[in-house]
Amino acid sequence: MSRLSIDQAQLDEFLEERRSEKATLIPVEGRAAQLGDVAIVDFEGIIP
Fold first, then answer.
1. Among residues 1, 36, 33, 2, which one has the least CA distance to residue 19?
2. Is pLDDT above 90 for 23?
3. How far apart are CA 13 and CA 19, in angstroms?
4. Residues 6+ away with beta carbon under 8 Å from 25
5. How many whole angstroms separate alpha carbon 45 and alpha carbon 12?
6. Quick check: 31 and 39 in contact, CB under 8 A?
7. Who's near 38: CB < 8 A, 6+ residues apart?
8. Suppose 10 and one of 2, 5, 6, 25 were both cysteines; which one would form an S-S bond, judging by CB atoms 3.0 to 4.6 Å apart?
9. Which domain holds residue 2?
10. Cα–Cα distances in angstroms (integers) from residue 48 to residues 5, 38, 42, 45, in the given order
11. What's the number of CA atoms in the CB half-sphere (13 Å) around residue 9?
């Protein structure tokens, strides 16, 4: 059986990706959107 070798940077990147996938969204109001925020935009358009 071969051994898998990864460095600390690869491990950190993998863990951060998993954290982002499992993150819970918390509603925030009263400020502009910031880097890292998730904006949910709901609109209806009408074509004349």
1. 36
2. no
3. 10
4. 38
5. 43
6. no
7. 25
8. 6
9. 1-48
10. 60, 31, 20, 10
11. 0
